[in-house]
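Final report, closing paragraph on structural work. Over the funding period we assembled a curated collection of sequence-structure pairs, and we close with a single example.
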Amino acid sequence: MTVRAFIAGCSGPVLTDSERGFLRDADPWGLIVFRRNVADAAQLRALTDSFRDITGRANAPVLVDQEGGRVQRLNAPHWPKYPPGRRYGDLFAADPVFGREMTRLAAMLMAHDLRAVGIDVDCVPVLDVPQPGAHDIIGDRAYGLDPATVSILGRAAAEGLMAMGVLPIIKHIPGHGRAFADSHEALPVVDTPLDELRRIDFAPFRALADMPLAMTAHVVYTAVDPDAPITTSKHGIASVIRGEIGFDGCLMSDDLSMKALSGDMRARAEAAFAAGCDLALHCNGDMDEMMAVAEASPMLAGEALRRAAAALGRIAHAPEPFDADDARARLDAALAAVA
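Its predicted structure, as stored:
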């Protein structure tokens, strides 16, 4: 796999000539799509097909943030609206077995939608555990307010995606739930003692450490590294993500264009790789920024290549038998009961 260790975005629903040339020459590991890239199913399938045609890799991954609730890139009228993670937590609180079953079923439905348009990686599940007074950037995106609920339903969602041939990404490792700022806009600093972080924030990630992909949190944990957010902290990635949590899957940065990070885009990418990220994620489709990230991104090799290949190797090419209409009716009825 001679590809460059970053994930790119694009500017609109069709690749421009300059984007096609960039993707051909830079050869990123994957592409991520957002609402600006989505018109309808036929258009989106053409976009994902064109990316794979340009790279010459039929298995080149295409990612999306399709959580439901506030974070859903494929939307009505062409796709059904899904609820935020907290609604599954409500079902779980009323009936743990049924709540877990519905969480898995919803993930299977989302994966069914995604596979039909050529998307095979979903930036789900959110394993953050919100804490009182924290910024609402996580809020109802979380499955619950305790690590046990988040762990159980996070695994149910991840298993549902994988059953239908879509890879999950656990995020935002090692936890964004107690940040008092939105990392899209500012750098959150968390002063919580390490033992408390281990007990609550790290716990869901430890429980799902066997997952193929994870996305870092642009958060400073002063008990881990007072000088750098986890994304660019060599000590944080080695001691917490790879060490205490035990995650040996493929680790990508959160979006490098977020305002939590400082420096130009090349410096941000270099810092993420120096800290131990396997892949750099850049989302906004700005060509100048993408070129800078590409220039700073190495070719996938060594352990990063092993982990990236292992992740793609877990895509199921023969999804479980699935009646989407029946599943959707069951999920709608379950959600209506707790509306």
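The chain has one domain: 63-337. The radius of gyration is 19 Å. We thank the funder for supporting this effort.
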